[in-house]
Write a structure and sequence with these properties.
Keywords: DNA-binding, Transcription, Transcription regulation. It comes from Amycolatopsis speibonae. Belongs to the LysR transcriptional regulatory family. This is LysR family transcriptional regulator. It holds the Pfam family LysR_substrate. By secondary structure, the chain is an alpha/beta fold. It is built from nine helices and eleven strands. Helix 5 links the parallel strand 3 and strand 4. Helix 1 packs across helix 2 and helix 5 crosses helix 9.
Length: 304
């Protein structure tokens, strides 16, 4: 028999890359992770890991077992959702991770709606950068993530997530009000080739958007906080590329649309595959979709 709890350890190793990081995600010691993986190999009768000293990687058998582990996890989520539906008193808490502007635009209005229409359902919010929320979701630290993707970014973890589109927004260029182009109705990004930029940190997908849109930008300051970025722009420290709804309207800075086809940020809610029919999650997802801009014209039944 294969213990599904050990499959979870294998998934964590595949997600995080090292025994130590997998242990941190699962709140286990590295030795406990190694013991669980050794026991799983014995149960499978196959070598699942290649070991070079302290480094490990998945063998083809290990990669195959990760696929099965994802399927088992989805079925367990469906089982929990089915059981919850049998006892749907609609009382409980949903843990949600979201980036700041989506909290303002969607999450806070959804909480207000739930307080009026489903007072037994509550949301616990974590403010995290968009690219950090999916790992929290897959590790079981939250139940629902609001995150983002960009026109040029590939989808990942498709077999493990169910996605619900919320809204789409373009990136605008944010300029100091004293900038030579600040009064333009549109700006060609090539006109900013000689400007210094304020950008998110490496690893943040919003930085990747800038690197693709602008050839070899000279980056002077870095921050993952768009309010801080906008404040630095207002101080005359450079220009920035910011999602439209993340622009905070700081005095001294102005957001100007880009000419042509701008980069886009697609915002969506995600849950672990198999859990979307859980009564609490269905209720919260419905409130989020109602709060999303333009929801009245959207296909409410669509999942991506």
């Amino acid at each position: 028999m294969i213990d599904p709890r050990r499959l979870r350890v294998l998934r964590a190793l595949a997600d995080h890359g090292t025994v130590t990081a997998a242990g941190q995600a699962l709140h286990l010691t590295p030795s406990a992770v190694s013991q669980q993986l050794a026991a799983l190999e014995a149960e499978c009768g196959q070598q699942l890991l290649r070991r070079w000293g302290r480094r490990v990687s998945l063998t083809p058998a290990g990669e195959l077992m990760v696929v099965h582990a994802n399927a088992v996890a989805a079925e367990l989520e469906r089982a929990r959702a089915t059981l919850a539906a049998l006892d749907s008193g609609l009382r409980g808490m949903v843990r949600l991770a979201s980036f700041a502007s989506a909290i303002t635009m969607v999450v806070a209005p959804a909480i207000a709606s739930l307080r009026a229409g489903s007072p037994g359902v509550s949301i616990q919010v974590q403010d995290v950068e968009g690219h950090a929320s999916i790992p929290l979701l897959l590790d079981g630290e939250v139940d629902l993530a609001i995150t983002e993707e960009y026109r040029l970014s590939p989808r990942t973890d498709e077999s493990r997530l169910t996605r619900f589109p919320l809204y789409v927004e373009p990136f605008d260029v944010v300029l100091p009000t004293a900038h030579r182009l600040a009064e333009s109705s549109e700006v060609d990004i090539d006109e900013l080739a000689d400007d210094e930029w304020i950008a998110p940190k490496p690893g943040n997908p919003c930085r990747d958007v800038l690197m693709i849109a602008c050839a070899n930008p000279e980056i002077r300051h870095v921050s993952d906080d768009f309010h801080a970025i906008t404040t630095l722009v207002a101080a005359g420290e450079g220009v920035a590329l910011v999602p439209r709804n993340a622009f905070t309207g700081v005095p001294g800075a102005v957001a100007v649309p880009l000419r042509g086809e701008p980069p886009l940020r697609r915002v969506f809610a995600a849950v672990r595959r198999g859990s979307a029919d859980h009564p609490l999650l269905k209720t919260v997802l419905a409130a989020l979709l109602d709060a999303a801009p333009g929801h009245a014209n959207a296909d409410r039944g669509s999942r991506a």
